[in-house]
Amino acid sequence: MKKFLIVIILALVTVSAKSQDSYIGFSLGTSIPQGKFAQNVDIFNDGYAIPGFTVSFEGFYYPISLVGVGGTLGFGSVYAERDVYLGHLLDYIETQTVVPVLSQVPLPEETNFESGFWNYVNLMLGPELSVPFGPFQAGVRALGGLNMSFYPKRDLSYTEGLDDIMAIAKGTSANLVYSYGGSILYQSRSGTGIKLSADYFNSSAAYDFELTKITDLETYKDTREEEVEMEAISVTLGFFYVF
Fold first, then answer.
1. Would you put residue 35 in left (φ > 0), alpha (ψ -120 to 50) or beta?
2. Which residues of 31-48 are buried (b: 16+ CB within 10 A; e: fewer)?
3. Strand bridging mode 136-160 / 118-133
4. How far is residue 133's CA from residue 117's CA, in Å, rounded to a whole number?
5. Are strands 118-133 and 49-61 parallel, antiparallel or unpaired?
6. Residue 109 carries which DSSP code?
7. Residue 147 and residue 53: Cα distance in Å, rounded?
8. Cβ within 8 Å of residue 29, ≥6 positions away
9. Do the beta carbons of residue 171 and residue 161 sit within 8 Å?
10. Contact assessment for residue 199 and residue 218, using Cβ atoms and an 8 Å cutoff
11. Domains of the chain
């Protein structure tokens, strides 16, 4: 047992003796929605989001062995399901009781509908723990900061006799965000590096929904403020300057 402890201590001392390399650069990859963000059942609290892309600029400085500090500025854009959402939206309009509509709403192809993309920007800071082995450097990190999210604008319109029916969902919001993940950085002899990373992030997006019916005599409105929890896993490949 004593010999085993001595081996462990020597190994830790050996690892600590080799300082970690600081780095700065950018990464590209895919953003894969998770949880309620990816679900497509509840038109108000599900995101109907499907995988898209992400790009980030990041840098970490190691003032002491094993422990570094840094941050990331990341941008993501993921697709929003169109047809499934439109079908659920028409079902909602048909069954809600605030705005009077005919018992039979039109078919999806008989409406005018536009749907955008989910976009978000994350600015985060935090620590990273890293262990070097040969030309590689394995690290784990936990970050927190500010998220700016842009709900995909969804705009529906159709006519009901002489009346106009419109439904629109849109919004921009700022919220807190946290993230954690791991990476493996390969450093070449020229001072450049390639890093493979996988990170999870969690935040939320607020938006406004409005259903309107305009007649010759009156205008009916149903206005709601809603929120979607944003969860995604990003898998990226990065190119860095190591110093």
1. left
2. bbbbebbbebeebeebbb
3. antiparallel
4. 41
5. unpaired
6. G
7. 17
8. 53, 54, 55, 197, 234, 235, 236, 237
9. no
10. no
11. 20-242 (2.40.160.20)
CB proximity list for 119: less than 8 A, separation 6 or greater: 75, 76, 77, 149, 150, 152
The helix/strand/coil state of 106 is coil
Cβ-contact 196, 181 below 8 angstroms:
no
pLDDT, tens only, 117-147: 999 999 999 999 999 988 999 999 999 999 9
- What integer is the mean pLDDT of 191-204? 96
Whether 194 and 240 have beta carbons less than 8 Å apart is answered as yes
Provide the token pair at 206.
Answer: 């607020």
Q: For residue 49, how many other CB atoms are within 10 A of its CB?
A: 26
